[in-house]
Amino acid sequence: MKAPLPANEEARLAALQRYRLLDTAAERAFDDITLLASTLCGTPMALVSLVDADRQWFKSRRGLDVDQTPREQAFCAHAILDTAPLIVEDATLDQRFADNPLVTDQPKLRFYAGAPLIDRDGYALGTLCVLDQQPRQLDASQRDCLEALSRQVIEQLELRRAADQLAAALEDVKSLRALLPICAWCREVRDDDGYWSTLEHYLVRHHGADMSHGICPGCYQKMLGKSKAG
Q1: What is the torsional sign of CA 211, 212, 215, 216?
Q2: H or E segment to which residue 174 belongs
Q3: Between 56 and 160, where is the model more confident?
Q4: Residue 63: per-residue pLDDT
């Protein structure tokens, strides 16, 4: 059974794209998490799965050869509809999954437990999930561990985004340090395309800066002098 789309699907997909993680190379930080999840839950398979528009893509996978599957087959597409973990003890007995190709064909999944990856804005990006070809259960401790590890996945995502933002900010600083062509008469600035504009417009356009205006002490004193002279 194909999962319905989340009510916030458009915003959720935009949030997923902001992390710039899809189709990136494997990373030890995420592989360590799937190793721990698999070991603690006693399952041969574990995934960090991100649910894209038409697929689920695996940032980290343990015990599974493929790096993505169609979204219509994804257990995780069901899991992102709630904040609590989705646990399927025997997929052949669950009408949502009994005829799923991942159940009827290879890898012949039976057990699934997925904890949603919910970012700081409340969007469910995917899951940290564990899987088995045998029916099984998770005890309370294993479930708590799975949820705790899912939060660590989000922490890794936030660290990556913060690093990207810092790198962008450093590039902006480097650009500001570069020599800017400034007109000696009117003080307008020439950009790389040869257009002249005010310094304020240049900073807003190229660096996203917000402008505010005031009067410096020197100009304030000059203004007072002119006022008194008038």
Answers
A1: negative
A2: helix 140-177
A3: 56
A4: 97
Distances (CA, A) of 204 to 157, 186, 189, 211: 29, 19, 12, 8
Contacts of 51 (CB under 8 A, 6+ apart): 16, 71, 74, 76, 77, 80, 124, 125, 126, 127
The angle subtended at Cα 120 by Cα 116 and Cα 125, nearest 5°, is: 35
**What is the architecture of the domain spanning 9-162?**
2-Layer Sandwich (3.30)
Tell me: pLDDT of 143 over 70: yes
Distance CA 175, CA 155 (A): 30
Domain boundary assignment for the chain: 9-162, 176-229
- The answer, yes or no, to whether the previous bond of 4 is cis (omega within 30 of 0) is no
Backbone angles phi, psi at 106, to 5 degrees: -60, 140
pLDDT for 177 beyond 60: no
> In this structure, how many other beta carbons lie within 10 angstroms of the beta carbon of residue 58?
23
Tokens of 8: 């916030």
Tokens of 89: 């003890």
pLDDT of 215 above 90: no
pLDDT higher than threshold 90 for residue 204: no
pLDDT at 226 over 80: no
**Cα–Cα distance between 192 and 189 in angstroms, integer?**
10
Say how many CA atoms lie within 13 Å of 40 toward its Cβ: 21
- Range name among 99-103, 179-183, 194-198 with the lowest pLDDT average: 179-183
Q: Helices 140-177 and 199-207 meet at what angle, rounded to 10?
A: 150
